[in-house]
Amino acid sequence: MTKALEIWIGAYSAKNEVGITRAELLPETAELVKTAEYGGIENPSFLRMNKAGTRLFAVSETGEHIDVDGDKAEGGQLASFPIEADTRKLGPGQYHPTHGADPCHVTLAGAEDWLAVSNYSGASVMMYPIRPDTRPGPPSIRFRHTGSGPNAARQEGPHPHSVTFSPDGQYLFVADLGMDKIMVYTRGPEAHEWTASDAVSLEPGTGPRHLAFHPSGQAVYALNELDGTVTRFAYPEPGKLVRQETVSTLPASFTGENTCAEIAVSPDGRFVYASNRGHDSIAVFRLNEGTSELQASGHVSTRGKTPRNFSLSPDGQWLVAANQDSDSVILFKIEPQSGLPIFAGAELTVQRPVCVLIR
Fold first, then answer.
1. CA gap 11, 21 in Å, rounded
2. Which domain of life is it from (predicted)?
């Protein structure tokens, strides 16, 4: 019998509402089944898990929080939850301040010795060393961004939107929507040393949001939220991004408003997927086998409104999409030849889902 896949869903929620949902994907019957719901954390809008599956990390995307003394403090929080091995239940959370408003993305380095958080409204990135027991230590490094872009409504200042470690863990790439830049930070020779090393520009007004590495490690794809495009970068040497082509995530006939949200590369390196909020679809790109160049391949409706986030299963056979404004999480089966996600007939009702993590 094929083993069930574990799914964790983060949502925009009040502290007394369900914020994190655990579910299972049953591959043999193409079912999604809820197994647990958790409250007690406000707006857990992005989730990450360590490789061993023993700890879940979540950002609490808020402008202020209540500190350990019961006082209001500026900025959001990073939450860390132990996971019971047998029951898969979340244990009590440990919380750290992010020292910036609206943390919206969190990631672990491959060696799981560092964790990074981007503060969207706080114009900063926080880095936390990971202890041997898998818990984050107090934040020890803070990078501040300065700059703006031509979109007065969205680019009045810096907005670090995502944090992505290089495959070797020596570099941290930060997509800043407000600056139209990807900031590059480099690990130093000392244990707690990271420094700024590069700033890679995109076209003004693109608004880079999320990044995804090709499995080969030779290309990086940037999803641009504001102008609805994907930009390919060559990665010829560690830490070096070289801009290549930029392609639209939308069909030529679409004339409505749209912003992009999530991007992922298939585990076999043949396809790139990107979500459209407005067109409410997953855009599919076939990749040139030799160059990893983007070739538009089609669009699939997410069967709901505002697909903020989606996730691919580790085997590349399934895609689970979260429709924020229709309170739905939808299961798709990937057609292996075309790469197109095909609705698998399964749907979960989750209030304001904004992140999907598949283990």
1. 8
2. Bacteria
